[in-house]
Design a protein that fits this description.
Layout lengths: L13 H9 L6 E6 L6 H13 L4 E4 L9 H11 L4 E3 L13 E7 L5 H17 L3 E9 L7 H6 L9 H13 L4 E5 L10 H10 L3 E5 L5 H9 L4 E4 L1 H5 L3 H12 L1
Parallel strand pairs: 1-2, 1-8, 2-3, 3-4, 4-5, 5-6, 6-7, 7-8
Helix pairs in contact: 2-3, 6-7, 8-10
Bound molecules: SN-glycerol-1-phosphate.
Length: about 260
């Protein structure tokens, strides 16, 4: 049995502890998402190491499909080269692979599709345990962002309307009551519009979960506004696939770390 703590409850593992303790030193954490399908394995590893060099607090590894046969190798290379946490961010149970330090063990609570609420999780749980991979229990909420995103289409779920922060907050409350520790407000990769600031504020004010915000964040200013609204972590992916400008990466890190 992995990760058992006081009273037999699932304890907070070393990666989650490190992230939470990191919040004593910086205003918010900066996570860079690496999509294994976005480029060659070497180039993805290089992007990850560049992010680490400029101060990323964790690298998320995942995507909707994962058609890259070198996926496991990417995770292993990153792990060899850096002490920064590599966290698997899977699109489904078939993406669970050895190598990453931890997994965002998500449930798509904004949707009503049992496959992503519980089915993928049941199918992936045994492997996560066998690999002794640390799990961060994460309520994943898809927020409407201006056009259909890959996650909306693939998951066959409806996002939460972006102008209804109270609905997002109610979902976060339910997640907290069900024992989740993190909530991920997701506009979708490459979203037209990022998660609205008032929604981040309301979710943060409604629960004690750690709040991750990602999708469609393209400027340090947008990141900063969401940090000020209470986000504990900001995720950026797409932007750094297209733009390798190191000063932009540095500006994001300072905007998020505060
Ligand atoms: C997607 O939230 C992440 O799951 C990051 O989104 O690629 O749009 O930065 P972007």
């Amino acid at each position: 049995m992995a990760q058992t703590g006081v009273g037999g409850l699932m304890k907070i593992g070393p990666i989650e502890t490190r992230l939470i303790q990191g919040l004593d030193k910086v205003k918010s954490l900066f996570f860079v998402l690496l999509d294994p399908d976005s480029a060659s394995a070497d180039s993805i590893v290089e992007s990850g190491l560049r992010a680490v060099k400029h101060g990323a607090d964790a690298l998320l590894l995942g995507g909707s499909f994962i058609g890259n046969p070198n996926f496991t190798q990417i995770a292993a290379s990153l792990k060899r080269e850096t002490q920064t946490p590599i966290i698997l961010f899977p699109g489904g149970c078939s993406h669970v692979t050895p190598g990453p330090d931890a997994i965002l063990f998500t449930t798509l609570i904004s949707g009503r599709n049992p496959q992503y609420l519980i089915d993928e999780q049941v199918k992936g749980a045994v492997l996560v345990r066998s690999l002794k991979m640390e799990a961060l229990p994460t309520a994943y909420m898809l927020i409407e962002s201006g056009r259909t995103t890959a996650v909306e289409y693939i998951s066959n779920t409806r996002p939460i309307p972006s102008d209804k922060p109270a609905i997002a907050a109610a979902h976060a409350m339910a997640a907290e009551l069900m024992g989740q520790r993190w909530v991920y407000l997701e506009a979708g990769s490459g979203a037209l519009n990022a998660v609205p600031v008032p929604m981040v504020q309301m979710v943060r004010a409604s629960v004690d979960l750690k709040v991750i915000v990602g999708g469609g964040i393209r400027t340090p200013q947008q990141a900063r506004e969401r940090v000020e609204a209470g986000a504990h972590a900001i995720v950026v992916g797409n932007l750094f696939e297209a733009n390798r400008d190191e000063s932009l990466m540095r500006d994001f890190v300072s905007a998020v770390h505060g």
